[in-house]
């Protein structure tokens, strides 16, 4: 027996078997290396909603294999919420393979701010019918909690008119908290206004005398949202200067208008609940009054140049102190019997006057029978 020849044959057989095995592995493994996919994710905190936003990216590689230019998802599973843009492809989809190979596919997943993480798992099939049996998985771990950024979006604007300024306060549509404004003007003017997140703007009027300087701030911030002042428009007409008064007597209410320093006619209207209404027009440089007889329950509504005033009630107005005083009787001449009527010369005079009047009346009666008498004022 030739041992050398036997060993040589055995070595040759082992080598041949190894070569065949490696060739088989290369044959079956080569397609797997030609098709591949991967899943990657990253997360950011959306402070406007208090949610985690996970961005998933699916990369595929067909290895330039002929007929594998597109793919579909046989499986898509995500946790804890669905992924928008990366979903399972139904069997009746048109096209059947809707995604293009070798191009990234991006999807978005929104997760509650207190979640600990997110997951995405996929299985891909290419248009050459190659299936990736090993599912690809991606994991994203959240660090901490995503909270909602509660902050206002304050803004303000100013517009001048003849009477003063109008401050418009807004809190942006994307605001996540109420805006608390403070408006400060001259002569100790100050006003606080709250505008809720996303609400309609709020307007505040500041008189001209308080608008020499306007400063608007929000919350605790000392940085002004707005600084400005009143600027009188060129077409403004100076306001009419007049004085309105009320005099209360023992039996009447007297309204007065003093327009001696005015430049325009003042029109006052008085409407009592008892009796007729009165209108008082007082031209520039003049005065005028309107009088109403006082009686229990009388109420008068008034307006001057269209501006209404509080009603005047007769029962509530203070009358002069001497209205309820009892008249002092005239003392009589002392004498017996408590003072009798005076007779004599005075009585005779009265009787004579009466007789004269009767005579005149008789004459007029006779004349009236003869002709008609017409009296003119």
Automatic annotation (TrEMBL):
UniProt keywords, alphabetically: Membrane, Signal, Transmembrane, Transmembrane helix
Membrane-traversing stretches: 346-368
Region annotation (Disordered) ranges: 311-340
Signal peptide: 1-34
Name this polypeptide is given: Cell wall anchor protein
Species annotation: Paractinoplanes bogorensis
């Amino acid at each position: 027996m030739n041992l050398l020849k036997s060993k040589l044959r055995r070595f040759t057989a082992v080598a041949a078997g190894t070569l065949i095995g490696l060739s088989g592995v290369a044959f079956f493994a080569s397609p797997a290396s030609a098709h591949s996919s991967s899943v990657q994710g990253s997360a950011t905190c959306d402070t406007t909603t208090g949610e985690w936003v996970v961005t998933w990216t699916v990369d595929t590689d067909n290895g330039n294999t002929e007929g594998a230019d597109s793919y579909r998802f046989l499986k898509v599973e995500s946790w804890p919420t669905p992924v928008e843009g990366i979903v399972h492809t139904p069997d009746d989809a048109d096209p059947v393979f809707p995604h293009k190979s070798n191009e990234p596919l991006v999807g978005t997943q929104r997760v509650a701010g207190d979640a600990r993480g997110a997951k995405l798992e996929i299985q891909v099939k290419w248009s050459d019918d190659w299936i990736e049996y090993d599912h690809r998985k991606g994991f994203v771990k959240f660090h901490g909690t995503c909270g909602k950024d509660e902050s206002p979006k304050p803004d303000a604007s100013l517009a001048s008119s003849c009477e003063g300024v109008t401050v418009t306060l807004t809190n942006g549509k994307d605001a996540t908290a109420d805006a608390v404004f403070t408006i400060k003007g001259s002569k100790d003017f100050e006003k606080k206004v709250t505008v809720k997140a996303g609400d309609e703007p709020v307007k505040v009027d500041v008189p001209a005398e308080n608008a020499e300087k306007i400063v608007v701030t929000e919350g605790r911030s000392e940085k002004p949202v707005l600084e400005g002042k009143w600027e009188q428009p060129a077409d403004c007409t100076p306001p009419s200067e007049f004085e309105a008064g009320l005099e209360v007597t023992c039996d009447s209410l007297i309204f007065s208008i003093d327009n001696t320093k005015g430049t325009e006619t003042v029109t006052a209207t008085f409407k009592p609940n008892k009796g007729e209404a009165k209108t008082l027009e007082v031209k520039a440089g003049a005065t005028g009054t309107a009088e109403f007889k006082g009686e229990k329950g009388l109420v008068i509504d008034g307006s001057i140049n269209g501006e209404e005033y509080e009603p005047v009630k007769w029962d509530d107005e203070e009358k002069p102190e001497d209205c309820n005083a009892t008249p002092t009787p005239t003392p009589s001449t002392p004498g017996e019997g408590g003072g009798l009527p005076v007779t004599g010369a005075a009585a005779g005079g009265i009787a004579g006057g009466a007789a004269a009047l009767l005579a005149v009346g008789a004459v007029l009666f006779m004349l009236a029978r003869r002709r008609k008498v017409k009296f003119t004022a």
